[in-house]
Each structure stands twice: as C-alpha cells, then as structure tokens.
C-alpha cells in the first residue's frame, strides 16, 4: 500500500504516519521540511519537499508519481479542495480529506453527533470553509468518480501539545497554582482524542475501498466537562486546578485577536459528544483507549523531557492574567455598589 501524507509532522498527522509505518505501508510524506523537530519521522519514510500554497512546487514534487492513497491534512477551503482534485485525479486510488467536526450544527441540537448531523456553524469561518471544501470533493466524487473519503477529527492532541485554549501556557498556570479562565460554567461536555487512537481509525480507512464516497468522524468515546478536564490536569501534576468561570461571550469582546476566542464561541463552549459506530463498523480494530487521565500523564512526562518546547507563552500568560485581574476588579467594583 503506497500512501502519501500531505503534512505528516503535525499534531495529528505524525501519529498517522507512525501507525501506517507500523502497518508496513510504503509511506511518503510531503511538507516544507520545517517542523519535524518536535515530531521526527520514523525510519523508512520517503520525504518529499513541497509547499501546498505553491501549485507549481506541488506539481514538481509529485511529478509522475501515483499512489494507492493520498491523505491530505492541509486542505482548508474550496480552493484547496479544487486544487487537490486537479492535481491528483487519476493518480490516486483513494483520497482522504481531513475535514473537521467543528462543522456539526452549532448551537448543538442533539447529541451524540452522527455523520449525518447537519453541517452548520454560523460562528466559525474555519468550519464554513471546511464545509465548502467537503462540497467540492463530494461533487468531484459524484460527477467525476474522484475517490474521496472524508474524515472529520474533533479536538485531537498528542503528547507534544495539550488540547487547551492557551496550550502549554494554560497547563503551566494550573501547575503553578495561578487561576485559569474557563469559559462558561465549565459543565458542557467535550471530547478529547489522542492522535494515536485517531491514527488507528484513519490507517484502517486507507485502502478500505468501501469507504470511498463515505464520511467519518474518529474520536474518543470519553466525554468530560471542562471542569473535569482541568481538574484532571491538576491531579496529574499533584496540585489543585484553580478555575475562574467567565461568560464565553466576554472573550471576543476583551480578547478579539486571541486565536482561541472565536474557537471557544464557535466550538469549545458547545457540548461535543460523538457516536463512533460508523468508524468502528468500517475499522473494527478502532477501539479508542487513551483516556484523558492517561493522556494528561503522557503530556506531563513529555513536558519533563522537552522543556524547551513546552514553555508558557508570555503574551498568552499576560492575557490570561489580565482576564483574572479584570474579574477581580469587577467583583470589587460591584461590591462597592452594594447598599
Ligand atoms: N488538531 C485538531 O484538534 C483538529 C481538529 C479538527 C480538524 N483538524 C484538521 O487537521 C489538520 C491539521 O493536522 P495536524 O494537526 O496534523 O497538522 P499541523 O499540526 O497543523 O501541522 C502542519 C503540517 O503540515 C506541514 N505544512 C504546513 N504548511 C505547509 C505548506 N504550506 N506546505 C506543505 N506542508 C505544510 C507541516 O510541516 P512543515 O512546516 O515542515 O511544512 C506539518 O507537517 C487540519 O486540516 C485541521 O483542520 C485538526
């Protein structure tokens, strides 16, 4: 099985590459060769240099090559999807498009999500553009037999990156006992998936010809509240997480440029619980096993060995600190108003 990964050294894709190598596939990886440091590729992978933003570099990189399957982690909108169809039609037996579960209907109407849940997210441009990409690929399948399989990860992490608004900065605030802002009251349900679990589902779809024309999400079966997610980090680190609950709507107002503000409003503040029956039917070996307590332990161990890659970001820390101070000031101001 000759498979090409576009991406391949990212948070999710590097575990998928490792799983494909473990399953004795002939694995090729295309990227710019810039970010392998944190997640080195396993032995036996063929590397190709190319830039998906530069169509000419992609044509040159893939000149004359053909694959049993191409897995594209770097297709974000209709333009990217059209470019992939033009580049790869007739040259791959299967094309796996990495989409996102953020596109399931927000506000949430019904859980658990199934693959037929209506795709609609008026809050998040990212999700709207991923819907448009799926539509291009679905049309290419219907009209041109382009052999697409759509995969929608939900919030997926690996040992090198905690799945938290604020990444290692949020983790660090919990560990050192500083208050951490939690949007809302922290009781909505959220699903965190370890990339190694995801990878078993994804690799099982490669060369699975019945999966062509189908869509799948691949997630953990464990749903936790945000309060539990943070409490578990505290317990893992031997401390108690100090959480400060603020209305989610507050974040885009006071921190409009923070990457996570929109994601919280459009995704993380809603409940996300998944029915994984479909992927388990197509890939019986998919049995997500890494619970969040286990994942948090792995993150803690990884950080201990890679301190240089897991430092808090001073700007993010200052922003989170300002939110805490602002809340304390507001509490004091309201107290003064008391009769
Ligand atoms: N993580 C999640 O929670 C989540 C949830 C839903 C969907 N997704 C989807 O998952 C995908 C991201 O996967 P990931 O997390 O594994 O990736 P990632 O962590 O964003 O890593 C990016 C990868 O792509 C390569 N790359 C970046 N820009 C490139 C370019 N212009 N040309 C060629 N290669 C480039 C990088 O290597 P170089 O820098 O060396 O080029 C690296 O291998 C996205 O489609 C995203 O929408 C993720």
TrEMBL record:
Residues 6-208 form the NAD-dependent epimerase/dehydratase domain. Transmembrane segments: none annotated. It holds the Pfam family Epimerase. Signal peptide: none annotated. InterPro entries: Epimerase_deHydtase (IPR001509), Lipid_A_modif_metabolic_enz (IPR050177), NAD(P)-bd_dom_sf (IPR036291). It comes from Nonomuraea marmarensis. This is NAD-dependent epimerase/dehydratase family protein.
């Amino acid at each position: 099985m000759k498979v090409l990964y576009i991406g391949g050294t990212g948070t999710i894709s590097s575990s998928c590459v490792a799983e494909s190598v473990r399953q004795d596939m002939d694995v090729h990886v295309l990227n710019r060769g810039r970010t392998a440091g944190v997640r080195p590729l396993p032995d036996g992978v063929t590397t190709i240099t190319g830039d998906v933003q530069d169509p000419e570099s992609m044509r040159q990189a893939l000149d004359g090559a053909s694959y049993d399957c191409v897995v594209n982690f770097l297709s974000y909108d209709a333009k990217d999807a059209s470019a992939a169809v033009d580049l790869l039609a007739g040259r791959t037996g299967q094309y796996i498009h990495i989409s996102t579960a953020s596109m399931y209907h927000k506000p949430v109407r019904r859980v658990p999500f199934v693959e037929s849940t209506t795709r609609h997210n008026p809050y998040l441009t990212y999700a709207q553009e991923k819907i448009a990409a799926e539509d291009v690929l679905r049309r290419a399948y219907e009209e041109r037999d382009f052999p697409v399989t759509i995969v929608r990860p939900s919030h997926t992490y690996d040992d090198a990156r905690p799945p938290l608004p604020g990444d290692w900065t949020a983790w660090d605030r919990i560990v050192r006992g500083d208050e951490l802002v939690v949007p809302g009251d922290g009781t909505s349900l959220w699903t965190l998936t370890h990339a190694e679990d995801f990878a078993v589902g994804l690799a099982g779809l490669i060369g699975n010809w019945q999966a062509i024309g189908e869509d799948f999400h691949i997630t953990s079966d464990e749903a936790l509240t945000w309060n539990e997610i943070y409490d578990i980090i505290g317990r893992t680190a031997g401390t108690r997480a100090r959480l400060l609950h603020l209305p989610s709507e507050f974040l885009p107002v006071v921190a409009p440029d923070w990457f996570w503000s929109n994601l919280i409003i459009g995704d993380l503040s809603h409940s996300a619980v998944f029915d994984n029956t479909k992927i388990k039917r197509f890939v019986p070996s998919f049995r997500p096993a890494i619970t969040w307590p286990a994942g948090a332990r792995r993150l803690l161990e990884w950080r201990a060995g890679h301190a240089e890659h897991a430092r808090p970001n001073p700007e993010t820390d200052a922003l989170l600190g300002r939110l805490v101070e602002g809340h304390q000031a507001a509490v004091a101001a309201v107290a003064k108003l008391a009769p």
